[in-house]
Amino acid sequence: MKDEIRYWIKQIAGYARGFGLDFFETRFEMVDYDKMNELAAYGGFPGRYPHWRFGMEYERLRKSYSYGLHKIYEMVINNDPCYAYLLDENSMIDHKIVIAHVYAHSDFFKNNAWFEPSNRKMMDELANHGARIRRYMEQYGIDRVENFIDACLSIENLIDFHSPYIVRTKPEKKGDEPEKIADVPRIKSKKYLEDYINPKEYIEAEKKKLEEEMSRKKKFPEAPERDILRFLVENAPLEAWERSVLSMVREEAYYFAPQRMTKILNEGWAAYWHSKIMTEKALADSEVLEYADHHSGTLATSPGQLNPYKIGIELLRDIEERWNKGKFGKEYDECADISAKEKWNRNLGLGRKKLFEARRIHNDLTFLDSFLTPEFAMAQKLFAFEFNPQTDRYEIVSREFQKVKDKLLFSLTNLGEPAIDIEDANYMNRGELYMVHRHEGIDLRKDWAVDTLKNVGSIWKRPVRLGTKFGGSAVLFTHDGANFREEQV
Q1: Res 344: pLDDT
Q2: d(CA 361, CA 9)
Q3: Calpha distance 295→98 (Å, rounded)
Q4: How far apart are CA 404 and CA 397, in angstroms?
Q5: Domain span holding position 442
Q6: Whole-prediction pTM value?
Q7: Residue 263: which of 69, 105, 377 has the closest Cα?
Q8: What residues contact 345, with CB distance under 8 A and at least 6 apart?
Q9: Residue 243 and residue 131 in contact, taking contact as beta carbons nearer than 8 Å
Q10: Which residues of the chain have pLDDT under 50?
């Protein structure tokens, strides 16, 4: 690494701390574009297990880069210490932008509440996962292990994204005793005739029947289970190595979940601070035009697409201005004079404090729900759009603020994934798995549902059912391991 880059790593770290950023120790590594694409294909973790999807992603990135369709400027890993990669062919201005951007990401990883449950040694953990899976491949065969990984990865979204933030307590049982089984009815007799009137074999057989009846009546699981992967890890009839692989896939899914939950806020935070550091501290006069060109490229938007960098940084700037001027609270909200609201300025100077508060407690859903305003939506030209099957294209359906906000928040709820719970793991007392899709106005894609049921069934080893709505009607999808069936209910 060049001495000049080392100098700017140290300088920009000082500028970031001066602005109040608090980040993990951050280690930078210089790589060429081929290595950067490889790292990106592996999600930033070079020691991950071998799988065809990583090779496919690498090939896609390589071709896209070769054709000039994309360029990865930086990559940063949520870890302690934090690892970041710089592209060796970047200009010095790009390196400075990326370094500032990385320190802001590292600050976000360390201080945002939604990252608190993260494994901060995931670089080592994923390397361990890779070593274990390579060992399984040697022992059980590449095709067998890879086919099982395929099934696991296809359902890695079937977790409870919010479970790491919930403290659950089980209700105490009186005396901490298991539920008692009713006594077996006995025929009254003299004590010396008891063994003849109520033989021991009869009593034991009747007791066993009562136990089986109670077992059938007891629901399993007792409450709907959103974390389907955990349920399968604990209850599916798997071999030890299969249970280990499924556990690893689940652990990685939870590790990456906070990054999906905070994409807008996290990227907005990084863009805000790289802009602040560059324009106020690290930018030479001769670099202004090149910086403006590269920064504007980061915030560029395409019609019908939401750029997380753009929406994030603009909303953070809007929050800073509003809290500096006091444009919030009961008095401001109830003011009906548009002109007065535009000129409103109480000179409170609370903007920076509010930004750090937002960084600390919010994810994308709560961030937009709390701070998105009609004025901001209008200024950013936000609108809601839907696919029109008659014209075979997406069209604007509304610019009304509440509809736009509702549409945006809905797309972020449960990370945009369908909400599916396990309702009964002993459906019809046949050991079949019955799941329910919490339908919220959008039908499941049937081809995806078929594949999902097939893969869950391959792990459960019994038929799998899914209750949902399709085309406005209640339906039951069933996959028995060989065939798919759809029934109206």
Answers
A1: 94
A2: 28
A3: 11
A4: 9
A5: 418-488
A6: 0.86
A7: 105
A8: 325, 326
A9: no
A10: 172-179, 181
Q: Indicate if 383 and 352 belong to the same structural domain.
A: yes
Chain mean position to CA 9 = 31
Sign of CA dihedral 288, 293, 297, 302: positive
86: tokens are: 């710089």
Q: Which residues of 179-200 are buried (b: 16+ CB within 10 A; e: fewer)?
A: eeeeeeeeeeeeeeeeeeebee
Q: What are phi and psi of 127, to 5 degrees?
A: -65, -40
CB-based contact 307:299 (threshold 8 Å): yes
Beta bridge partners of 155: none
Are 20 and 52 members of one domain?
Answer: yes
Query: What pLDDT score was predicted for residue 317?
Result: 96
Amino acid at 356: F
Q: Does residue 250 form part of some domain?
A: yes
Q: Do 288 and 405 belong to one domain? A: no
Q: In angstroms, rounded to a whole number, what is the distance separating the alpha carbons of residues 214 and 403?
A: 50
- Are residue 316 and residue 404 in the same domain, yes or no? yes
Contact predicate 61/105, CB 8 Å: no
- For residue 280, give the DSSP letter: I
CA atoms within 13 A on the CB side of 202: 10
Token reading at 187 = 């025929």
What is the amino acid identity at position 57?
E
Which amino acid is residue 61, in one-letter code? L
d(CA 266, CA 113): 12
For residues 159 and 60, give the distance between their C-alpha atoms in angstroms, rounded to a whole number.
Answer: 28
